[in-house]
Design goal:
By secondary structure, the chain is of the alpha/beta class. Helix content is 43%, strand content 12%. Among the domains are: 164 residues, Rossmann fold, CATH 3.40.50; 131 residues, Dehydroquinate synthase-like - alpha domain (Dehydroquinate synthase-like, alpha domain, Up-down Bundle), CATH 1.20.1090. The longest helix is centred in the middle third of the chain and has 18 residues.
Length: 424
């Protein structure tokens, strides 16, 4: 028979005397979450979402559904029917899904909904439904409330399904800086149903394609070639129907992203291939007027980064042309009038702070691999801007070149807006 030792009182412990009081505390936090592609997520016979919410339909359970108000109009009835079938009682919190909603006030509103619901700290889940913005603010709120409550992501946009919804970062914008405040907080699961893309407009599909192109350029030459063959037909219906090419594009993009993220979830290593296209784009995204979507700003950054790689001899002229042609064929912008050399230089200065004192600029070494450089100069940036602008101008037909540009149309880098620059 063994006896359980009693805890000793502090009176008999051998406690060191000052000034030698010092302890070293070490712990590891395991991360374990699933990213699942499943068709017909809201079909009552599909138990994936129910199990993620902790329901087996034998007893009632609750969840807080943080949902984009537009998505609620499209899928709210289907979600309610699904929850009813599985004896899940949802509490609804409708939020905006635009970039302007990424504020601390909106995240706090979600935490207040948790308080009003009286959400249980471990067994009741927050379910975030919408695009990348909803993933970011709902994830941040979940990470802050009682220092962390479990949450599930259901991304309904292409950007959310292949990028914003599958990692562990949350964030809001602050001041003139994108994602300046945020946390690392893994969801319990990310549930991806390509059928949500049936209701996505083409601009937002193209927005997500930018991140797929990014992954192809830095990690997956086979994906790049697949995109070259299929890019002109890569629309919402094609992706939502998930035929062989679309399925491979989605799965390769997600697998490539997770392969890069998994060993470096907390970004202890700041040389990250997935930061390609994200060196200069945060400054552009918050200053562009009219506003740019995230992927559009990333595309303009990628074009400049490709030019930097080309001018350094890291990327051949044919490969640079292939990459720019692919982006153009996808409907992505290559230039923007706000993206001046001066803004690029300021953006790089801020990036150096974010990357702990070094530029760590990822540049393509051929197509499918990346190297990092720390010595990009203002003169190089000017040559890169010129490289891209020359190729954009060279493709404009003479008649179009002489005609006035439609209102709101993107012009070549270096041209000025007639209005003053808007800073978000």
């Amino acid at each position: 028979m063994t006896s359980t030792p009693h805890r000793q009182s502090s009176a008999v412990l051998d406690v060191p005397k000052p000034p030698d009081l010092s302890w070293h505390v070490q712990a590891r936090l395991p991360v374990d979450y699933e990213v699942v592609i499943t068709r017909g997520l809201l079909s009552e016979g599909n138990g994936v979402l129910a199990r993620a919410c902790g329901s087996d339909a034998t007893a009632p359970t609750r969840c807080l559904v943080v949902i984009d108000q537009t998505v609620a109009g499209l899928y709210g009835d289907a979600l309610q029917a699904y929850f009813s079938a599985w004896r899940i009682e949802p509490v609804w919190k409708l939020v905006r899904g635009d970039e302007g909603a990424k504020t601390l006030a909106h995240a706090v509103e979600i935490t207040e909904a948790m308080t009003e619901m009286g959400i249980l700290r471990r067994t009741e889940k927050v379910v975030a439904v919408g695009g990348g913005v909803v993933m970011d603010i709902a994830g941040l709120a979940a990470s802050l409330y009682r220092r962390g409550v479990p949450y599930i992501r259901i991304p309904t946009t292409l950007m959310g399904q292949i990028d914003a919804g599958i990692g562990v970062k949350t964030g809001i914008n602050h001041g003139q800086h994108k994602n300046r405040l945020g946390t690392y907080c893994a969801p319990e699961a990310t549930l991806i149903d390509p059928e949500f893309l049936f209701t996505q407009d083409q601009r937002h599909v193209t927005n997500g394609v930018a991140e797929i192109v990014k992954m192809a350029l830095v990690k997956d030459a086979a994906l790049f070639e697949l995109l070259e063959r299929s890019i002109r037909g890569l629309d919402a219906e094609t992706l939502a129907s998930c035929g062989p090419d679309a399925r491979e594009i989605l799965s390769r993009a997600i697998a490539g992203m997770l392969h890069e993220l998994e060993p470096n979830l907390w970004e202890g290593e700041l040389e990250r291939a997935v930061d390609f296209g994200h060196t200069f784009s945060p400054a552009l995204e918050l200053r562009a007027d009219p506003p740019l979507l995230h992927g559009e700003a990333v595309a303009v950054d990628m074009a400049v980064s490709l030019a930097l790689a080309h001018n350094r001899g890291m990327l051949s002229t044919p490969d640079a042309e292939r990459a720019l042609t692919l982006m153009r064929s996808a409907g992505l912008p290559l230039t923007h009038p706000t993206f001046t050399v001066e803004l690029l230089a300021r953006a790089l200065e801020d990036t150096v702070k974010h990357r702990d004192g070094l530029q760590r600029v990822p540049l393509t070494q051929g197509i499918g691999t990346v190297e990092f450089v720390n010595d990009v100069s203002a003169e190089e940036l000017a040559r890169a801007v010129a490289f891209v602008a020359e190729r954009v101008i060279s493709e404009v037909p003479p008649a179009a070149a002489s005609a006035p540009a439609p209102a709101g149309q993107m012009r070549a880098i270096g041209e000025e807006f007639s209005d003053s620059e808007h800073v978000a």
